Amino acid sequence: MGYRMPAEWHPHTGTMLSWPVNPDTWPGERLPRVERVFAQLVKALHGRETIHMLVNDAATRARALRALAAVGLDESACVWHQRTTNDVWARDFGPIFLLRQDDSSLRHASSTYGPHIQPNAPSALMADKWPKVALTDWGYNAWGGKYPPFDSDNAVPAWYAGLHGIRRFEPGMILEGGSIETNGEGVLLTTESVLLTPTRNPDLGKAEIETRLKDYLGMDRVIWLKDGLAGDDTDGHIDDLSRFLNPTTILTMVTDDPADVNYRALQENKEILESTGFDIVTLPMPTTRIEGTTVDGSEHVPASYANFYIANGAVLLPVYDERYDAQAIELFRQYFADREIIPIPCQDLVFGQGSIHCVTQQLYA
Q1: pLDDT above 90 covers what percent of the chain?
Q2: pTM here?
Q3: Which range among 7-16, 121-130, 168-177 shows the weakest confidence by mean pLDDT?
Q4: Domain range holding 203?
Q5: Which of 94, 171, 208, 337 would disulfide-bridge 90, Cβ 3.0–4.6 Å?
Q6: What is the 3-state secondary structure (H, E, C) of the chain?
Q7: What total of structural domains would you count in the chain?
Q8: Structure confidence at residue 289 (pLDDT)
Q9: Is-catalytic flag, 358?
Q10: C-beta separation of 212 from 171 below 8 A
Q11: End-to-end Cα spacing for the chain
């Protein structure tokens, strides 16, 4: 018995957000526009779980408070942390939590430790020896060093662990939270296009990476998909492609148009998932082409209904395209009948090449 990364639907104690400040991600008038989206996220989460808001300085907090006031909230809506960050992507740089497994029937398939694995890796710990909550502190280098500086973001998990006295594990590997997805029962989804890029972990092969995922996240099985979406500067995070809706059901994005820039990748990933033994449901991709280009020159953005966030009592669902939004809302109502489905327009947020899941990180302590 040891630790395991829980599914996102496991009750949270809070959500981490980082208020937007980076002018390279949000140039000109785009900054106040994305602040309005953040205010809607806070409004949707308010009263459901504690919101831990990271702000760079007093001026950033003042901007945040003005945006919150516009949606009827005041400073009591958040727990405020004046803590410098480089950007908003808390999913990728924030702490990834583990919960202690008390069920002796749970097993961890990986039990052989190479020189990079310490004998106190989470999957080797006895459940009666350590606290019920721990976190993993993976390295973060802004998706292979694309957007320096990233030092402040990389330091967030250690800061948060110290702030709350939480046991922290360092796997010694670059990994973003948006690149992994679990059903809470020992199965992990990820993509080769992200985890196998040489700009992240050039000294680790696929087998070594899979071993660390199993040992440090308590996984029994890793399912590898291939490529991600056009315009996804992360190289293809899983949270834009395929997500668990429950322990046995996976939502995956598709397009029926062979001319669509994402057609080949989405079809290949769907075929892989159909061979896994899980129930597979699909949603069509909203439009991903934008007018002009993003800050890195892309004509596409990773607009996807898969970038939802499961909060306590609610699902925050990004919407983008009136052709398919209602279909997405109905599917989520079907699979999350016990939660309120809250659609949030995210065209302004996804211009920064991420959406709701990318800017949120669930907390368990």
Answers
A1: 87
A2: 0.93
A3: 121-130
A4: 3-363
A5: 94
A6: CCEECCCCCCCCCEEEEECCCCCCCCCCCHHHHHHHHHHHHHHHHCCCCEEEEEECCHHHHHHHHHHHHCCCCCHHHCEEEECCCCCCCHHHHCCEEEEECCCCCCCCCCCCCCCCCCCCCHHHCCCCCCCCEEEECCECCHHHHCCCCCHHHHCHHHHHHHHHCCEEECCCCECCHHHCEECCCCEEEEEHHHHCCCCCCCCCCHHHHHHHHHHHHCCCEEEEECCCCCCCCCCCCHHHCEEEEECCEEEEEECCCCCCCCHHHHHHHHHHHHCCCCEEEEEECCCCECCCCCCCCCCECCCCCCCCEEECCEEEEEECCCCCHHHHHHHHHHHCCCCEEEEEECHHHHCCCCCHHHHCEEECC
A7: 1
A8: 82
A9: yes
A10: yes
A11: 21
Classify residue 192 as exposed, middle or buried by CB count within 10 Å of its CB (0-12, 13-18, 19+): middle
Round to whole Å and give the CA distance between 3 and 116. Answer: 18
Residue in this structure with the two tokens 């989206």, named with its chain if needed: 37
The tens digit of pLDDT for each residue in 237-261 reads 999 999 999 999 999 999 999 999 9
The pair of three-digit structure tokens given for residue 355, joined into one six-digit string: 């959406």
Q: Cis link prior to 95 (omega < 30° from 0)? A: no
Instruction: Give all strands of the β-sheet with 181-182 in edge-to-edge order.
Output: 181-182, 187-191, 221-225
| CATH code, domain carrying 83 | 3.75.10.10
Catalytic residue among 223, 358, 363, 365: 358
Give how far the C-alpha of residue 284 lies from the chain's centroid of Cα atoms, to the nearest Å: 21
* Backbone torsions φ then ψ of 136, nearest 5 degrees: -105, 140
